[in-house]
Amino acid sequence: MYSRLKYFAFASFLLLLFSYSLQDIGLIYPSYFPKPVYDFKKNPLKSATVQLGRKLFYDPILSRNNTISCSSCHNSGQAFSHAGNHLSKGIEDGIGDRNSPAIFNLAWQKNFMWDGVIPNIDAQALAPINHPMEMGEDINVAVRRLNKSKEYRTLFYRSFGDSLATSERLMKALSQFQLTIVSASSKYDKVKQKKAQFTDSEKRGYLLYQQNCNSCHSEPLFSTYDFANNGLPVDSKLDDHGKWNKSFEPADQWMFKIPSLRNLGFTYPYMHDGRFKTLNEVLDHYEKGIVKSPTLAKQLEKPIIFNHKEREDLLSFLATLNDSVLVSNPDYQKK
């Protein structure tokens, strides 16, 4: 009898251990999206871990003075951007170096940050947590704080099978929540699904987009997520040279990650330093503001010029990429 109880206890333990390694939810995205590039085998999606990541995302406990959370610069109601702020804001009124990028459709991205310095989303959160002007905290101190919390010990147990918080588990939980943030419910998506139709103006704008923008902002994600020099004049105060800041390779001068055109209505201002408040200013740049340099994108060697009517049509199409379902989805918001 005792040996049988031991067997069942051991089997139950194995079953529990096995259950903590299994993916119990899948990433939901449309059939016309490409296959995600993120390797979910190394960090299988689990509802308990997603919920842990969601709580961590909204909790200022990860910042040095408990005032700044991930959501402070990535607001769900603004397509997880920091609309209206040209540079990120951190603890003690600190100002970061760049505009806070919108974080959706991350499962299709290989590199993170405007300069691509982070090659894996499972490590991305280290940058803002450790940045002295953003969250300003040592990751090990943040982990110790989590281990003192009864609530977090319970949540880590539900996610990983024991209650210990570690930096690796913290990163994986945050990435799991962020990976589930998929933007695929705009009017454009409804048209793709044959549930809606473009207006005449949107149709004309769609053609203009395909002729002038698609090579860098490829549909359906509306970005290749590669890096390009789009001819911006260098801001003398920030003196930001993009990828070159880390690599010092001449080919990386002024190369920044290409953002998605999705949700532009929620994510202003635009560019890596938030210098443009409106989309018309962006179009002005491509018409008459491009600075020539050896690394300038080939597509921009000639200015892109739209007349007034064409601008209206292009902006009408771009508005079809705004995803109101994303910004109002309770699954992405603070509980």
Query: What topology, given as strand order, has the largest sheet?
Result: 1-2
The named CATH superfamily of the largest domain: Cytochrome c-like domain
What proportion of the residues is helical, as a percent range?
Answer: 25-40%
Radius of gyration: 22 Å
| β-strand number | 2
* Class based on secondary structure composition and strand pairing: mainly alpha
User: Could you say which overall geometry the principal axes of the C-alpha atoms support?
Assistant: globular
Average pLDDT: 93
Provide keyphrases for this structure.
335 residues; mainly alpha; Cytochrome Bc1 Complex, Chain D, domain 2; 2 domains; two-stranded antiparallel sheet; 14 helices; 2 strands; 1% strand
Provide structural commentary.
The protein contains 14 helices and 2 strands; from the N terminus they run ααααααααααβαβααα. With 335 residues, the chain is an all-alpha fold. α2 (47-58) packs antiparallel against α7 and α2 (47-58) packs across α8 (167-179).
Would you spell out the secondary-structure blueprint of this structure?
Elements: H1 2-19, H2 47-58, H3 70-73, H4 121-124, H5 126-130, H6 139-147, H7 150-160, H8 167-179, H9 187-192, H10 200-212, E1 227-228, H11 244-247, E2 256-257, H12 279-288, H13 308-319, H14 324-328
Antiparallel strand pairs: 1-2
Protein name: Cytochrome-c peroxidase
GO molecular function: peroxidase activity
Pfam family, one: CCP_MauG
